[in-house]
Design brief:
There is one protein chain. The strands form 2 sheets. The chain has a 3-stranded antiparallel β-sheet with strand order 4-3-5. Strands 1-2 form a two-stranded antiparallel sheet. The chain is built from 3 helices and 5 strands. 31% of the residues lie in helices and 20% in strands. With 98 residues, it is α+β, with helices and mostly antiparallel strands.
Length: 98
């Protein structure tokens, strides 16, 4: 045996809000389209992506620290209304499901 295991490595990303590492599947990918930061839950939109926990706490920290602008290398401030709406809807859906 070569010592290799059959388990595949799980890709990790860093949340731009809390700066904690987590599995890629646990984080929400965001992409800058024009002057707007939009969610990319499927992970298929083109362009540079930034990852954040789908929680309002992490989202607020990222907005306050201007982390999306830095991570996405945007020339100016990004509008995060669509991203906030997506996270709020996801939070409500998780709370409704027992």
């Amino acid at each position: 045996m070569s010592g290799r295991t059959r388990a595949r490595a799980c890709p990790e990303r860093t949340c731009v809000g809390c700066r904690e590492r987590a599995a890629k599947a646990e984080l929400l990918r965001t992409v800058a389209i024009k002057d707007e930061c939009v969610p990319d839950p499927s992970g298929t939109l083109p362009g540079r992506g930034a990852y954040v926990h789908p929680a309002l706490v992490c989202l607020d920290q990222a907005v306050r620290r201007r982390a999306f602008t830095r991570a996405l290398r945007a020339p100016g401030a990004l509008d995060t209304k669509a991203l906030r709406q997506h996270v709020e809807q996801r939070t409500v859906a998780e709370q409704a499901t027992p």
